[in-house]
């Protein structure tokens, strides 16, 4: 029997709800784990422990004599064998005085343990990267042991460490800097243990912080996120599952407004008078529990506690910038098809080059190619003296706005030059509607030919033209593609294009894609159908439609590039970019044309997110470009067809080595049982590469 049977929801709205874009490996893991949970949660309120035990792979500790590759050892300490209360201590090889992180695992109070593979990997990762001494607590599970058993177990470990920490913890463990942490049900547990700690006088331990990772809270009310986020199969949490867990955990006869579940509800405990530790609450945008998690954050604020909320949304500064830029574009794009250059010139701050004054160890000079068409380029040179690749960059702006000297692009190219590192050549080309197709492509290719013939005289001595990359964002990525096609048809003498970096390319067509139809409401979107339509009308030859090959490169009028030696291409897509469907079609078209291509997705990002340096994803993108360039530089064939694929960009997520997984299922009955063991164990830590 499926756990979801008997539950009814209004599904009218959730069918239109965006789904989290996750790697297929994660979606497969989540789907299998969800199915296992649904099967293990019996309708009578008991749990199928035999099934869970079969599929939940348990990791042994590895003492210092058997330290793993990340130099983190672990040992188990038993506190009370009658209630299976024990904890695992993770110790990095770092010898300096380290804080202590007491971690409580998740699992709805009913599943998993400290030894579960996913949590062992997670705690090992924390110990190595924070670094910290991590104490992961194994507590009793429901429904066999109901509230307050879990809270008692957690607090007993805290008291034990306060009294015996000097004997069981490493010598470099600093109990005066202790943090409580947990995820899901473990975060709920961490909160309630923190409340008990505040009411107790500990001798040596001082809890100074609480890390609450997507805490498991709830109530009788059905929140908006619980009602809406019910459709996607890639969600690990659902209302039927959380309801089952609450019934299994709470005292019999209690409802979800019990103070253990609804900490901010009608029966909540007043903590305003407690010295509650500073708290970090992490919320997931596709977590059905996110409304409860935000209420927890607000409740802590109202209780006078120090608290921060971490959720995948744009900072207000970015949203403000995007809103202002969008308003300026809308005013500058006149209905007659011309652009208000006076307004644009007034608001588009132009940065001069800096040949002598070095910023971030990067100098820049401007080189004019043709003053009659304002064709010039800016060369960014880092202080590095080793041989560096050359990146020819084309700025965005819908073919109609901005320039190489625009502040945002000057900062972006300077950042590329410094962090990749590379010699960056940023091309200033003519703009539409004054100059229509193919002027921009002509300008871009003329710069390429000029550098091929004169690179030795205008570029720094350490510029390696045999490792040249084309790059561009938005309209600049469109331009980079078409210039690359021309380069493939031309015999260049010294310049060799080995890669193409396509950042959220500006492609389109007469068809309205799903993403164009859906992503129209938020004011934080820089791109809209009305704006892109205006840009296409301003750029394409008069009388042409959006299925022109310049716009719809993979459409009915597309040029056949299968016979060209097209460079390996990295296509970057944002989850909240209305153009993302066209960008994915471009990637698929490259693959079908026999070209080497990889797709990098940022599920929570808008169009042109990389020009905002305060976004963590902007820094992550630079690192991914750097990795791509390194692969291309080692070989002109960066990715074989089998290696081309889709990646989902999320901080610290890396492809796991599948060969390492073999040890978890070889010898386990049959292959399908082994696969279940592997996937169940990896569900929470699949991409923590140890």
Briefly summarize what is shown.
It is built from 19 helices and 17 strands.
What do you see in this structure?
One of its GO terms (biological process) is pollen tube growth. Belongs to the 'GDXG' lipolytic enzyme family. It comes from Corchorus capsularis (Jute). Residues 101-311, 391-610 form the Alpha/beta hydrolase fold-3 domain. Keywords: Hydrolase, Membrane, Transmembrane, Transmembrane helix. With 690 residues, this protein is an alpha/beta fold. It has 2 domains: 24-310, 3-Layer(aba) Sandwich (Rossmann fold), CATH 3.40.50.1820; 364-637, 3-Layer(aba) Sandwich (Rossmann fold), CATH 3.40.50.1820. Helices cover 34% and strands 18% of the residues. The protein is built from 19 helices and 17 strands. The protein has helices at residues 24-40, 49-55, 117-129, 149-168, 185-198, 224-228, 239-249, 290-302, 316-332, 341-347, 407-419, 439-458, 475-488, 514-518, 529-539, 580-592, 616-634, 658-661, 671-682, and strands spanning 72-80, 85-92, 98-104, 133-138, 173-183, 207-213, 278-282, 307-310, 362-370, 375-382, 388-394, 423-428, 463-473, 497-503, 568-576, 597-606, 646-648. The strands form 2 sheets. A 9-stranded mixed β-sheet has the order 9-10-12-11-13-14-15-16-17, sandwiched between helices. β1 and β2 form a beta hairpin. It is elongated, with a radius of gyration of 28 Å. It starts with 23 loop residues before the first helix and ends in an 8-residue tail after the last helix.
